[in-house]
Predict the 3D structure of the following.
Amino acid sequence: MNPLGFEGSVSAGVVSALGRSLVASAGPGGRLLDDVIQTDAALHPGNSGGALVVSSSEVVGINTALVGHWAGQGLGMAVPINERTRTILGALAAGRPVRRAYLGIGGGSRPLPPVVAAATGASRGVEVVSVVASSPAATAGLRPRDLIVSVDGEPVGDVGELQSLLTERFIGRPVAIGFVRDGRLTTSQVSCVELH
């Protein structure tokens, strides 16, 4: 990390939230970061890609974004180190490309209404909090407050499960998204594009 050109900088802070979602870039096609760690460790331009480490020296995240256009305001986001990121890092280290399908929503895990839970056998789904304009999700008619419960017939209970399903196998082909709207279970076809 070389924030603001100063090599080897270290900061200390508190992890204040897990599972946050935020838009990483504005405008059409803006990327959404889901399931990120919120920290108040000082982040500045140049920190991106640096390690978020706990006191036992374990790397728990990779610093990714500042919230807002200003620097060092004490609200940074880090991608968590989990099975998904380990798979991606392993592929990159081996020189293999990692292609991901892009849906274009931000969301969080929510309990399903009792009637839907009984019908699906699931207890949670992914509530759509935001939809990126002109994204595959927007084109398919998904909107905030929809509760996604399945992708291509596979159940989805949280953002991590949704992201894990959005692999290259869904790029460029219609995918059935099961979701709850106004208490009713419905399905829409979404044609995912490649995440860039």
